[in-house]
Amino acid sequence: MHLDAQTFVSLLLNGLATGSMLFIVACGLSLIFGVTQIVNFAHGSFYMLGAYIAYSLVSVMMSVPGGFWAGVLVAAVVVGIVGGLVEMTVLRRLYKAPELLQLLATFGVVLVVQDVTRYVWGSEDLIGPRVPGLAGSLDFFGIRFPSYNIFLMLLGPAILGLLWLVFHRTRWGTLVRAATEDREMVGVLGVNQRWLFTSVFILGSALAGLGGAVQLPRDSANLGMDFNLLTEAFVVVVIGGLGSISGAFVAALLIGVIQSFGTLLMPSMTLVTIFIFMTIVLVFRPYGLAGKKQVQVREPPRVDEGLMVQGGREQWVLWGLAAAFVVASPLLLNGYGITLLIETLIFILFASSLHFLVGPAGILSFGHAAYFGIGAYFAALGVKYFGLPFLPALIGAPIVAGLGAALFGWLCVRLSGTYRAMLTLALAQIVWSVAWQWISVTGGDNGILKVWPDAWAHNHVVYLYVTLAVVGMSLIVLRRIVFAPFGYALRAARDSSARAVAIGIEVRRVQWAGFVLAGALAGLGGALYAFAKGSVFPDVASIAFSVDGLVMLLLGGLESLAGPIVGAAGYHWLLAELQRTTEYWRAPLGIVIVLAIIFFPRGIVGMIEKLVPHLFRRVGLVRRASVGDPS
């Protein structure tokens, strides 16, 4: 498409205005991560709160001179206070916990804020007022450009300048920069880390609230704006370099311009372009445009503090009883119960495949749902366009998902730590974006319907037994692999890559193979899910579904192979019951997640093992590694 000069300038200015607003939010996220090393999923919620609180304040104060700006500033302050309270009551207890627990705690906060916002302001979109004095437009090269967008273009650099002054001309700023470089050393020097972390969290949250408030005149306040903005903010922070404010500024402007031009030039790829750009940047600059290699502030957390052992006959008796219950369930449960049981088995497979990646392999993934979605869409597209029978679709799904995992894994194993986790998120968002925007093939948000198994498996009882057989065999294979030499090589690479290399283990190749296996099993679960539901929608590949998988691991426990099984069953049952009981199911679920992380960090299996250790030693689920144990 040909661009004339006026269109080019208009798109450029819009991109700069969007990028400037995005920087305001992203710099707070970058600041929080740089000091606390926490990937704050609740940052998007603070942005959303800023918009809603500003709407209420501005509606009341609009008649007063300067009332709009007073409302915006007060909203930012209120959100900053809320962020400080979250840090003091939840995150302060978790600074020494594994990063997965920290992340999931912030996800619990997201769920609580979602329902609080829904309860206070309702589910309808709220349209903000025009800004007094900036409601008109100015002439730029013959283009009428909104005055408020020009204000946003200037606001971003102004905040960057103010932050530079604070960080380079105040003692507090010096301490923040020092903590970004080495927070352990800052603590050794006698600095009150609690005060420092809380103040940083307040400032970062206030910036998120300010970003939401100033966005109100351009866009409505709605309940979906938290996750929509959060993914873009993550992209900005990672491209700019974790903890780098100046890098975030450059990255935000780049993302804003890419989005602006992409809307006109590639309207069917607007969602996917920024994630492709992020992937390219990380491949060639693994630490972002202005980032540095992450400083190891503590030893990598062992996922299994105890040694997973194979167990004996008692363990197989236990699992046999569980399988017998599933076999007998049609005699005990109604149709809804059987459907819930089928879904539970599928989620057990999904969670177990993710546990293989997070546990034995030690690779934190924010995008495991991508492979689940690939498997689901392969089955659905095969049935819709090619009339593929049930069994060939079920066999082909893990193969295609495994190929996708091979490609994504090849990129991911070249990175480490949070950068690798963020790359998995970006790659998953690419899959989700394609499913959402390739409407002619995937149906977009309308999905693909009438995806049913063959007549012989259409009965829900028969499909239950098919699902049980597939999931059961997959778990047995996965267990055998964990205790095979390949599984031990994965754990060796997880615990110390340098030592693993020294004894001849090709760490990248082993981790890459782990990606392929985990992705293939997730894809198999996706195909089972597609036939169980009879339809496929883009949310099967969403970040939210990936986080659901991580929550399943948390609730069950990461320290044993039984953890994802128990966690998936418990989480899916709890979620189903809450959704049936109340419209506001997110808040109680979020509270359960936060409390579980704080008081039961080892999950249900770990808690039972601690309370009844002799039982677990007998069945061989978890055994404590004693001093001198050669394992």
From TrEMBL:
<feature type="transmembrane region" description="Helical">
    <location>
        <begin position="12"/>
        <end position="33"/>
    </location>
</feature>
<feature type="transmembrane region" description="Helical">
    <location>
        <begin position="423"/>
        <end position="441"/>
    </location>
</feature>
<feature type="transmembrane region" description="Helical">
    <location>
        <begin position="45"/>
        <end position="62"/>
    </location>
</feature>
<dbReference type="GO" id="GO:0006865">
    <property type="term" value="P:amino acid transport"/>
</dbReference>
<feature type="transmembrane region" description="Helical">
    <location>
        <begin position="461"/>
        <end position="490"/>
    </location>
</feature>
<keyword id="KW-0812">Transmembrane</keyword>
<keyword id="KW-0813">Transport</keyword>
<dbReference type="Pfam" id="PF02653">
    <property type="entry name" value="BPD_transp_2"/>
</dbReference>
<feature type="transmembrane region" description="Helical">
    <location>
        <begin position="316"/>
        <end position="333"/>
    </location>
</feature>
<protein>
    <submittedName>
        <fullName>ABC transporter permease</fullName>
    </submittedName>
</protein>
<feature type="transmembrane region" description="Helical">
    <location>
        <begin position="551"/>
        <end position="575"/>
    </location>
</feature>
<feature type="transmembrane region" description="Helical">
    <location>
        <begin position="100"/>
        <end position="121"/>
    </location>
</feature>
<keyword id="KW-1133">Transmembrane helix</keyword>
<dbReference type="InterPro" id="IPR001851">
    <property type="entry name" value="ABC_transp_permease"/>
</dbReference>
<keyword id="KW-0472">Membrane</keyword>
<feature type="transmembrane region" description="Helical">
    <location>
        <begin position="510"/>
        <end position="531"/>
    </location>
</feature>
<feature type="transmembrane region" description="Helical">
    <location>
        <begin position="148"/>
        <end position="167"/>
    </location>
</feature>
<feature type="transmembrane region" description="Helical">
    <location>
        <begin position="195"/>
        <end position="214"/>
    </location>
</feature>
<feature type="transmembrane region" description="Helical">
    <location>
        <begin position="390"/>
        <end position="411"/>
    </location>
</feature>
<dbReference type="InterPro" id="IPR052157">
    <property type="entry name" value="BCAA_transport_permease"/>
</dbReference>
<dbReference type="GO" id="GO:0005886">
    <property type="term" value="C:plasma membrane"/>
</dbReference>
<dbReference type="InterPro" id="IPR043428">
    <property type="entry name" value="LivM-like"/>
</dbReference>
<feature type="transmembrane region" description="Helical">
    <location>
        <begin position="345"/>
        <end position="378"/>
    </location>
</feature>
<feature type="transmembrane region" description="Helical">
    <location>
        <begin position="68"/>
        <end position="88"/>
    </location>
</feature>
<keyword id="KW-1003">Cell membrane</keyword>
<comment type="similarity">
    <text>Belongs to the binding-protein-dependent transport system permease family. LivHM subfamily.</text>
</comment>
<dbReference type="GO" id="GO:0015658">
    <property type="term" value="F:branched-chain amino acid transmembrane transporter activity"/>
</dbReference>
<feature type="transmembrane region" description="Helical">
    <location>
        <begin position="264"/>
        <end position="284"/>
    </location>
</feature>
<feature type="transmembrane region" description="Helical">
    <location>
        <begin position="234"/>
        <end position="257"/>
    </location>
</feature>
<keyword id="KW-0029">Amino-acid transport</keyword>
<feature type="transmembrane region" description="Helical">
    <location>
        <begin position="587"/>
        <end position="608"/>
    </location>
</feature>
